[in-house]
Amino acid sequence: MPGITYVRGDATSPQGKGVKLIVHCCNDLGGWGKGFVLALSRRWPGPEAAYRRWHRERAHNDFALGAVQFVQVEPYVWVANLIGQRGVRTGSKGVPVRYEALGTGLEKVAEKAVELGASVHMPRMGCGLAGGTWSRVEPLVTGRLAARGLAVTVYDHG
Fold first, then answer.
1. How many Å apart are CA 95 and CA 113, to the nearest integer?
2. Which end of the chain is more exposed for a tag (fewer CB within 10 A), N or C?
């Protein structure tokens, strides 16, 4: 079974050949403006525009925790906007990340990656502004993606 490959680098410049699917964690408030999304927006305007439209039209679509929106940004590169955090601030209900939502979303990512024949690329999603810990996210990535034979690369920036 393939595992997770860890590299130093920028997840918006995924390494390797073939179709690549970049996955990141979004909030359920429609907010886009801090963290990894800034690097995405500098590279491609499409994922932000699609996410904002998805949120704006949420009364008529699946925008909710665990949902994933797939946006093609180049002929062989896709971005997956995965809603894996409730709100944006740590408070009485803990940190914003919702591990169950990440797991649900990663199932959808796995299906899309298999459909596209894609490798999966990500920062340590859910572990920055969302407040999660990689020790809780990594088993989800392993179980939902690597266990299905998908090549997964995790990027540590800097």
1. 29
2. C
